[in-house]
Amino acid sequence: MRLTLNGAVTDVEAAPGRRLLDVLREECGLTGTKEGCGEGECGACTVLMNGQLVVSCLVPFAQAEGAEIRTIEGVGDHALQQHFMSEAGAQCGICTPGMVMTASTLSRDATLEDIRIALAGNLCRCTGYEAIYRAIQRARAATSA
Amino acid sequence: MSVVGTSVARKDGIGKATGAAKYADDLSIPGMLFGRTVRSTIPCGRVKRIRYDFDTTGFTIVDRRDIPLDGRNVVALIEDDQPFLVERDVRHVAEPIVLLAHADREKLLAADVIIEYEVEPPVFDPEASTESLKTLTIDKGHLDAGFAQADVIVEGTYRTGHQEHVYIEPNGVIAVPEDGGIAIFGSIQCPFYVVKALKSLLGPKAHVRVVQTETGGGFGGKEEYPSMIAGHATLLALKAGLPVKIVYDRTEDMIATTKRHPSIVRHRTGVKRDGTLVAMDVEVILDGGAYITLSPVVLSRGCIHAAGPYRCDNVRIRGRAMLTNTPPNGAFRGFGAPQTIFAIEAHMDRIAEALGVDPVTIRERNALVPGDTTATGQRLTADCSALPVLREAVERTDFRRKREALRGTNRGIGLSLFYHGSGFTGSGELRLASKAALELTDHGVRILVSSTEIGQGTRTMHAQIVAETLGIPYEDVDVAQPDTTLVPDSGPTVASRTCMVVGRILQRCAEDLKRRLGDLTPAEYYRAHGPFTIVREHEPPGWIQWDDETYTGDAYATYAWGCDVVEVELDADTCEVRPLHLTAVQEVGKAIHPALARGQIEGGSAQGIGYAIVEHVAMRDGVMANASLTNYTIPTTLDTPAMDIVLLENPYEDGPFGAKGLGELPMDGPAPAVINALRHLGVDLSEIPATPERVMSACGSR
User: Fold this and answer.
1) Is the pTM above the cut of 0.90?
2) Is the Cβ pair A88, B595 closer than 8 Å?
3) Closest chain B residue by Cα to residue A25
4) Which tens digit of pLDDT belongs to each residue from B488-508?
5) CATH number of the domain within which A23 lies
């Protein structure tokens, strides 16, 4: 099956019923996308599919045919990633790839309330989210300056 | 130069934000099989027959008979009572019976193992259980004489439920046959606990190496259970002669692994008209689950904290952890203290109400000050900060005025005052005799400890302590990945001890090294003299006196102190409790890395808010009935209140740069503050979580 993976046209062989999450991790070697619950609740496996956020544990691979998939390995929002680390927005780090994917879709003028609503589908057990808000806000401030 | 007290870049590097950091499930080893655990489906009884109802070609199958002759079928911890695999008797649902491995995960999951049982009646109610796992009594003064002085006696019973850790990375390990023994790579809080358990499984002479991979959260949940999983993967790998990976899915992780002990705490308190506490009689009952595991020490910490941060001359605290036919409950951030602090802090507001004073006044009158003694008779010194945290929190939130202003609205405000002992209890640190080491490298030094980075910032904070002590740049300090064949046993990563205890040993290593280096930098010394390693053992302060029999003496080297204020809103239609704002004032000795310290308090407070309001484990017939993240919810961004965090510093003289332990403290405060805020709203609740159903029934009775 052919898809565009992090900007490159890629042929991947995998059963159509497999979870996109497993295909990314096991067939494509992209282990930055994490599994936290396997039922679309925690958001650790969040990727972009045709520009939309999806939880890749709930997407059958067949649906990815011809799609443009972007994972944490190809997100390219370096300011955001750096601020996640410098603001202690990542502690254990397992939710961080999903958080970064979701945060990468936020507009530059997102308010704190916008950020909270956008991240409501991404669970973090370490930070209480406050440092994640700080990371996103500072990254946004830095890129718009 | 000063690196301690500044928020330097984490040692983790950028990998966690780019997806490059490797967790257990990200590793794949050629030839690796996948492992699966077949578990009991009854809470109590005996295994009669096991039948393999599938084509076993290509499968590795392990049962209790595969345990080596030199080994023992026990997960060695405190007592040797929990087996790796059921021998015959089943004590709880999800007890491991048979292990399977196969290269193809689909086939592995499809394999049908049929187990027939002889069923016996289970016990689920800890108060109905006749088998105690541990009992203890703390006695101070004369209870009867205390009650005789009382003007008012206030009684109350407080209950807390299970709490699931919900580290976002489920448990997982890979076992790799190596040098006639085994190497384990996994998501592990305490690598040497796993070594101990595997040496019991394989025999004391077996080669065992345990390596911690990047770990996606622990909170106590990866303290003891990884020993079980590592044992299972080991048995499969040794039988197959191939690497075996076992990674739990969320449901298995929730059903099979440990949770916070449910508790019932009864208080009977004698108090004078002026608010002085004169007698405290406390009964603590913990539901231990089906095996002893860590229950004795959880009970111990819970009981020691059960009288709260208050002065009282006459105290009796009786505790018991009871056996029930549920999976063993275990370590979870706070380790018994969140349960008993919930009880005393909810009780203090009832005492205040009985006397007609406000919640601040009753605490001001009784809060421990330097020179006072705790329930175990420990005399507190200048690093006691109960009143400073209380006063700061009250002033900062304008608590009294706000409490008046909110009256008659659908908002309530409550507070809690609490403390948390740092490090192992009593003589525990002396017995542990933890070691840490520093070795020279060609550009600086490397820290060798088994203390694990599980998100809290171990690597970073340790490197700061070493850099500061040696007077070298932070960047010149490396931290070795915990590998039990390469690092000394610095003790488990638990009990708020990694900074205060292990950090202190590292500070001593660095002091010794600095003397040895003279005028040379570590790199210059390395070039001139070659490799050099310095190892030091922990030296607990000499004044610590503790009696394990009578539970008297210096329970902890020091305590960290906190006061939380929580404002909640009650939805009159749905009875949902919404936490709006949390102020946490916490005194931690010295914040080595303020941003990380703040991160611990924010994260711990969010877990405490979840514990108070939404985290409900529904146990049905001895098994978690809501074992998924759809049905067991933790706070999302929309359920977590805005937080105002205040760090106070009152140094502990034997901590590194004055640091105390702070990891568990923030877990203790939110639940009672929430329940007290509900009481302010007129909702009389003495049980958490405060689910809409419970709030509704409490509202119905007011």
Assistant:
1) yes
2) yes
3) B26
4) 999 999 999 999 999 999 999
5) 3.10.20.30
- Tell me if B9 and A85 make a contact (CB, 8 A cut-off): yes
* Contact by Cβ (8 Å): B264, B158: yes
Identify the residue with better confidence: B595 or A142: B595
Asked if A37 reaches chain B (Cβ–Cβ under 8 Å), the answer is yes
Beta B642-648 vs B132-140: how paired, if at all? Answer: unpaired
Same domain as A70, residue A86:
no
DSSP string, B316-359: EEEEEEEE-SSPPP---TTTTHHHHHHHHHHHHHHHHHHHT--H
pLDDT tier, A145 (very low <50, low <70, confident <90, very high otherwise): low
Query: Are the Cβ atoms of B167 and A94 closer than 8 angstroms?
Result: yes
How many domains are there within chain B? 3
Closest Cα of chain A to B5: distance in Å? 15
CATH code, A110: 1.10.150.120
Contacts of A122 in chain B (CB under 8 A): 637
Residue-number span of the structural domain to which A29 is assigned: 2-74
Q: Is there a contact between A131 and B605 if contact means CB atoms under 8 Å apart?
A: no
Residue B570, pLDDT above cutoff 90: yes
Amino acid at A98: G
DSSP code, position B410: S
In this structure, what CATH number is given to the domain that contains residue B445? 3.30.365.10
Q: Is residue B298 part of a domain?
A: yes
* Residue of chain B whose Cα is closest to the Cα of A115: B637
Split into its structural domains, chain A has a count of 2
- Asked whether the beta carbons of residue A84 and residue B16 sit closer than 8 angstroms, the reply is yes
Among B322, B259, B261, smallest CA distance to B133 is for B322
- 3-state SS class at B175: strand
Annotate B326-337 with DSSP letters as a single string. SPPP---TTTTH
Looking at the fold, whether B565 and B525 belong to one and the same domain comes out as no
Q: Which residue, of A31, A59, A74, is where some domain finishes?
A: A74
Question: Which of B673, B513, B667, B528 is closest to B603 using CA atoms?
Answer: B667
Q: A35 and A12, same structural domain?
A: yes
